[in-house]
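Q&A log
Question type: sequence-to-structure
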Amino acid sequence: MSLLFKGRAQGAESVRVGFFQSIFMFFTDHARQAVNSLGELWRSPFASLMTIGVLGFSITLPSTLYVIVKNTEQISEQWQQASEISLFLEKGVSNADAQQLLKRLRLWPEISEVAYIPADKALEEFQLLSGFGDALNYLEENPLPAVVLVVPTSKHASPTAAGILLDKLRKEREVEIGKLDIEWLERLYALINIAKDLVTLLAVLLFFAVVLIIGNTIRLNILNKKDEIVVMKLVGATDAFIQRPFLYTGFWFGLLGGIMAWVTVLFILLWVDFSMDAFMEKYQVDFNITAMDLSTLLIMLMMSVGLGLAGSILSVQRHVKDIEPR
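Response status: OK
Response body:
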């Protein structure tokens, strides 16, 4: 009885060892083929660099445009906060009534900031900026009304939301005129939307071209190794085993191309940042270009590797199966 139990235990242990050994051999075989495929790229550096360069630059252009559009949205958000709704109050509104209006407006969820400019202060500022100087002292009364400046929250700073807020503010009894110059904001939003559509269209076209280029490169590699593939099939190698090195080649193309694209985008953004500083100084806006963060880098690398694998998969599934011993 003990011998039978012992035999079963040894059998279970051998099965367990065989299972773990098979897993170990599986990963070892994959690692060996991955390293060998990288060695193949190293043995033909010029052709490999050409393919990696095409993939890298194809990803660089949409990635750079995406980062620029993303930063443009941040610029527009800053300008949205600076674009104020001007409420010109009625002539008979006293400072006490104006303060009551300010208290009510500060409770509105659509409003971020509220500022009050009394009529006498508005006249002083106009006197300094207009160049009329002492000529305004001859006026019998102050022609300028008190003004309330309202800054909407970022959620309500879009052209449509700001227009709705303006109509709501005009209904306040103390307000005579409400003004908001949203035409430039609408143009900016329209340009950003057009830029997004162009980036998406350009990215799709370039990615499709990358898949075709990598697929053609893998196809040429398969044809160059046609005799080797025939011999491997004669000795019993499966299509999956034969296809694996070519798939790893596509993986390396994608990974190296993604790294190249990332480095290129960083250099482009550094160059653009110097020009952007001089431009933003004219508008007195403190702005720095936000480069790619870790999540954007990972997305770029995954996209690049995916394109490399997609091109290699399309090629090997068609051409490896067509090669058969005669």
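Response note: Residues 54 and 210 are 7 Å apart (CA to CA).
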